[in-house]
Q: What sequence folds into this?
């Protein structure tokens, strides 16, 4: 072997070792790297799917909270039982706000209509209120009863005028309550 041949052996051996190393890496390490890359992509897809489900649950939770607030309002509007003192206080407050003199209020009495008994006996309380005031204040009082938090239905209104310019009004309305639940 000549000196020139010896100088070529070292680069050839280096190239040979590099080629063998590349083959070993390609045969043994590349499948593991490819498998790990595939697992990483699958995990990313799972994370994206989980994030979508989380967003959906968050939206559903917001809707449930909104519905819960609505149900709470409805439970106040249609109570399980009618609390007569609170009902009378509410009518008195509406009368005072609208500057209507409240001359009498009948005690709430239970009333069942034919259509209500056909649908399970949903009961209402019938209340009659006698008031005095100007036409505008009477109109505002009736509007206040209609827009009260409680579900109610005005069944009759009778107005009579007096010589002093006041209008006497008799208003009968029904206040609803929730039907009894059977378990």
A:
């Amino acid at each position: 072997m000549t000196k020139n041949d010896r100088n070529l052996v070292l680069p050839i051996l280096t190239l040979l070792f590099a080629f063998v190393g590349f083959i070993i890496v390609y045969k043994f390490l590349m499948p593991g790297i490819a498998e790990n890359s595939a697992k990483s992509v699958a995990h990313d897809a799972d994370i994206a799917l989980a994030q979508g489900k989380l967003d959906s649950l968050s939206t559903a939770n917001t809707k449930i909270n909104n519905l819960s607030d609505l149900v709470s309002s409805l439970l106040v509007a249609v109570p399980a039982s009618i609390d007569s003192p609170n009902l009378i206080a509410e009518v008195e407050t509406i009368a005072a706000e609208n500057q209507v003199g409240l001359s009498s209020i009948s005690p709430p009495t239970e009333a069942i209509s034919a259509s209500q008994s056909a649908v399970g006996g949903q009961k209402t309380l019938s209340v009659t209120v006698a008031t005095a005031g100007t036409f505008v204040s009477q109109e505002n009082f009736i509007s206040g009863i209609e827009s009260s938090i409680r579900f109610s239905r005005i069944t009759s209104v009778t107005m009579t005028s007096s010589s002093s310019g006041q209008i006497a009004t008799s208003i009968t309305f029904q206040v609803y309550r929730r039907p009894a639940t059977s378990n």
